[in-house]
Design a protein that fits this description.
Layout: E1 22-25, E2 27-28, E3 49-50, H1 53-67, E4 73-77, H2 86-99, E5 105-110, H3 120-129, E6 131-139, H4 143-148, H5 155-168, E7 171-178, H6 186-200, E8 204-209, H7 217-222, H8 231-244, E9 250-254, E10 263-267, H9 271-283
Parallel strand pairs: 1-4, 4-5, 5-6, 6-7, 7-8, 8-9
Antiparallel strand pairs: 2-3, 9-10
Helix pairs in contact: 1-2, 2-3, 3-5, 5-6, 6-8, 8-9
Amino acid sequence: MNAPLIRYVEPVFRPPSEAESLILPVTDGCSWNACTFCEMYTAPQKAFRARSEDEVLTSIRQLGERYGNRVRRVFLADGDALVLPTRRLLAILEAIKTHLPAVHRVSSYCLARNLKKKTVAELVSLREAGLRMAYLGAESGDDLVLEKVKKGETHDSTRAALDKLGEAGITRSVMILNGLGGQIYSDQHADHSARLANATQPEFLSTLVVSFPQGEARFRADFPEWEALDQAGLFREMERFLSQLELRRTVFRSDHASNFLILKGTLGADKERLLAQVRQAIDDPGGAHLRPEWARGL
């Protein structure tokens, strides 16, 4: 039996918008992997490691031989491919361009800390080599909430990373976790997350609802005062967040499987419509076409 062209280590994750992309692992796991709300890379087989350059380049060459011009998008997995040195990333992007010439977009998850040692010039070189989009999980713009969940970032460090990506011309997709601050810190979580979005003006912004399929014990160990928002509380937090956004041209999505209320639009053009949908969900949840509990998931 022939060896697989790509060696996957389960479970494999990718953003919803990368559903039709080739998932190409260049690292395994997450180099930080301390966020207490995240269960994506906690399995023993997901311990962080950078894959060898030879393995990745061989996979790309073999993919090109088999699929030629049929691959249009590539997502560099796992949790933070941009932790790799710029030289190695450039070699990967050049191989994609050579062996998969129909690819028009390469994207990756990105931790803010990944960019501290990368200059804007380096990021420009990555963008020119084909890296078009970075997905950055800000989770919150509030420093206390970020500390409570062991994110290892601050409002300012996240803003600096987003500004650096923006200056380099790399499209930014930012994720905020609805409910991450719990009942006590809901207002400041919404306020400072909106402030972060306003300051950085990302091209894409999405919200997910915090959830714990494997239980809350790990999360509560460092955040014992956290109490989950109920459905109405999540909607009120969303209303507070949306009402403070002053975005010029950001595509907004709240349509992940974890969300009760599906929201799609462009901010600021659709701000009032989106707020009206949220307010209807608060006042009349039965008429708001909510996703049923059985259909929700991580």
